[in-house]
Design a protein that fits this description.
81% helix; Growth Hormone, Chain: A; 423 residues; globular; disordered N terminus; mainly alpha
């Protein structure tokens, strides 16, 4: 994936120094900064609807099950576009796909504010999801093309933490706008952020490293990668992660407003705090993944076990302080796992396959996003939010178990790849 770690070379872990601080060069720092900003805007645009959902439900007269369908509509397209997004990035270049993604999602963010019915809202959110769906794999490929293998997960950890920081910023922006001018205006406001970020990425994103460009031209191996059983263990790990992450992100704001009786502003603040802890955990996990060279059994399994226990305890918390404390713990432990799930594949594979590999793994997490919001809406209507949140612990258990079974290092994964992927 860099000048020293094509699949035919010695493993990156053996060729790079094993001690010393992980440092990013200027191009890598610029890339991290731009993609950090772009992903914050991505997440703000995505999460505004979670805060607006109670108001949308009232205006359109839809119940929680239908509200869950609105959320799942986004993930249906978002998940479906993960692997195609990676293939497009591998074929046409990461920068071009990044720019198209930002433009498309900004347009459909604004159009969400024009929705006139439940059906129109679902269609718009599907198209919005398609725009955002081609972004993650292109972003990860852009990082792989501009970093060496030794610091790649540190860079990815910083960029991925933007999701959590976006979750901090989203309620602080959208909450007051919704309270003052209504839910429609909140979508118009955040759409402009996407356009501004589009301009910055177009002007400032550094070129890929020369070796990455040469390697990317090699082509081939994508079908063999998709047919590799070991890779699907990482897909399954992110599916379990996605159950927990998207379940909490999608329904905690509505739960705090409808079940705990909090105002929109208060629920936004209480949602932002766990996201802040999650962002810090994700930065730390990227550094740990680089230092330990992956090893999901060490990083992912214990953290996801803690997250699952915290969610189960959260369902029994009577006081708001206890609920918020456990929610912060669950968020931090869960988001700590994100970067380490990608660590071994992205340290092992060449940049010509990094887009496809990222899209493949991310497909698992976003597939959970299709199922979980709608399932939780149904469970909240049919039973209670206690039951709905408790189901999320199953995702934590799945990820923890698969983390023990997945290849733990680049050497182990490389031995389980076919020749078309290795060569």
């Amino acid at each position: 994936m860099s000048a020293t770690d094509s699949p035919t070379d010695a493993p990156a872990e053996q060729s790079a120094p094993t001690e010393g601080r992980v440092r990013l060069d200027r191009a890598a720092k610029t890339t991290v900064g731009l993609l950090f900003l772009a992903w914050i805007v991505d997440y703000i645009d995505r999460l505004v609807i979670n805060l607006a959902l109670p108001h949308i439900g009232t205006e359109f007269g839809i119940d929680r099950t239908q509200q869950g369908m609105v959320l799942s509509a986004f993930f249906l397209a978002y998940a479906a576009c993960q692997i195609p997004g990676g293939l497009l990035a591998d074929r046409f270049g990461s920068k071009r796909i990044l720019l198209w993604a930002m433009l498309i999602w900004s347009v459909f963010t604004a159009l969400t504010g024009t929705a006139w019915s439940f059906a129109a809202l679902v269609v718009i959110r599907v198209l919005f999801g398609a725009g955002q769906g081609i972004f993650p794999a292109a972003a990860m490929k852009a990082v792989a093309e501009r970093t060496g293998s030794r610091e790649r997960m540190t860079a990815s950890g910083w960029i991925s933490s933007s999701n959590s920081f976006g979750a901090v910023v989203a309620p602080l922006i959208a909450g007051p706008v919704i309270a003052l001018w209504g839910w429609r205006m909140s979508f118009y406001a955040v759409a402009g952020l996407g356009v501004a970020t589009f301009v910055l990425v177009q002007l400032l994103l550094p070129p890929a490293r020369p070796t990455a460009q040469t390697e990317a031209a090699g082509g081939g191996g994508t079908r063999a990668l998709l047919a590799t059983p070991a890779m699907w263990l990482y897909v399954g790990m992110l599916f379990g992660y996605g159950m927990l992450a998207w379940g909490l992100n999608s329904w905690v704001p509505s739960y705090l407003q409808t079940e705990r009786g909090l105002s929109l502003e208060s629920s936004g603040l209480l949602t932002a705090l766990p996201a802040l802890f999650g962002g810090l955990a994700m930065i730390a996990s990227g550094w740990c993944a680089d230092r330990l060279k992956g090893r999901p059994a060490v990083l992912v399994a214990p953290s996801m076990t803690v997250a699952g226990v915290a969610v189960l305890a959260m369902t029994q918390a009577e006081g708001l302080v206890a609920f918020e404390t456990l929610l912060c713990l669950a968020f931090a432990a869960c988001t700590f796992c994100f970067t380490p799930i990608f660590a071994v594949p992205l340290r092992t594979l060449s940049t010509r396959l990094s887009g496809a590999a990222s899209g493949m793994i991310n497909f698992g997490g976003q597939s959970a996003g299709i199922l979980v919001p709608m399932l939780m809406g149904y469970l909240a209507d049919a039973y209670s939010f206690t039951v709905a949140f408790a189901v999320l612990a199953l995702g934590a258990a799945l990820t923890a178990c698969l983390a023990l079974l997945a290849p733990q290092t680049s050497e182990t994964l490389r031995s389980r790849l076919g020749p078309a992927v290795r060569d």
